[in-house]
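Lecture notes, unit on binding sites. The following record was shown on slide 14. It pairs a sequence with zinc ion.
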Amino acid sequence: MAEKPEYCHDPLPEAPKGFRLHDALAATVDDKKHYHCGKLEFEDRKSYREFVSNQLAIGGTPQQLATLYAVETTGKPPQMDPVKPAPAGTTTEKLLDVSDKKPDHNGYYHLGTLRVKETEFAQFAELQKNICDKNPEARDTLYHMEHAPEPVTFRVTKDNDRNDRFDPNNNTIYWNPHTAVRDGGNHSRVPPSTAALHEETHWAIRGTVGDTLGGIPDKKYTDWNEKAVIDGVETRDLKLRGLDARDTHHGHVLPVTELDSVAPSLTVKQNGTEREVRAPFKQSGRVIEVNEKTGTTTIAVRGEGNLPEHRMEFKTEQLKWAMGSKEHQTDVLLEGAKSHKDTISLQITNDGRVVYENPAQEQRLHDHPLPGVKFPKPMEPDITPVASTPAKELASAGADRWR
Ligand SMILES: [Zn+2]
């Protein structure tokens, strides 16, 4: 019997006796040169061979065979039911209780098998309260992370790392509380809270089932590991939040300030009072000071109509992000500034699109960045492809099908 991953209520049906990896990988070719493994279809030889090399790397475990048998007979990923429920009486408060715990010598709290840095614990706990309150699946997943067969680590990343991911090599989830994702297809949004549950679910289906599904390419969602996570728990969670499901697995990250937010925002000090500015927002101004000590940049903003000019103080870090991410089509646009004396225009669009009013000006901005402002490297959302091993010759391709 295939081993039951935490994420499935029911174990996958066993593959029939005598069903080998060789059988699962054998393909027939139709007159359009499409490759078929049962109901799995590959549009060209390259994608078929990639599938084969990914599956060969896993090596033919019973779980892999059960997964492949299931997907080749149905043409669909196995149904990813909600994670097994936590035992009755489990509460989020109990799962997050560290009152009698001390961090280890590396600064980690141990919640059963789950390790969380003491310095990141407040943000972690705020996240878990948020997602567990809204979605019982999240609480069940948290329970399983604390009662896993092997240790799992949850890291809260800084803003120079906006690539949320689950890394199976060190069994660690990396999550940035200030990153939402805007879908590249239907432009739906995934807030930081749902993105965390997405990565936790990659953890929940880790191992053979996740790897096997990851080796199956998908036009819409990169691969079937992503498809299982996005069509399953992520879509259910977005629905609970009144948000649309996404329909691709690419897009770009949005800098946001709250766990539930899906609109970009900047915190600014206006005439000494801190306030958050949300899209749509458009202001023109000139940079009058970049203060390295306080980490702030002051911009004088032209008043509209008869209003006088006023000063806005931005956290330079956010401006760096805004500027650096501009060329990667994020939502904050600083354009036209050649030096700190120049007038700049700050624009955040409401639907997350960048409006290029004057591409030539933007180019100049890049050539002459503001003093003390560096452009960070682009950060892509979780779109790491499954590692592929060198393709082996498939002597058995086209061999007899298993049924
Ligand atoms: Zn993912």
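Take-home: The two ends are 21 Å apart (CA to CA).
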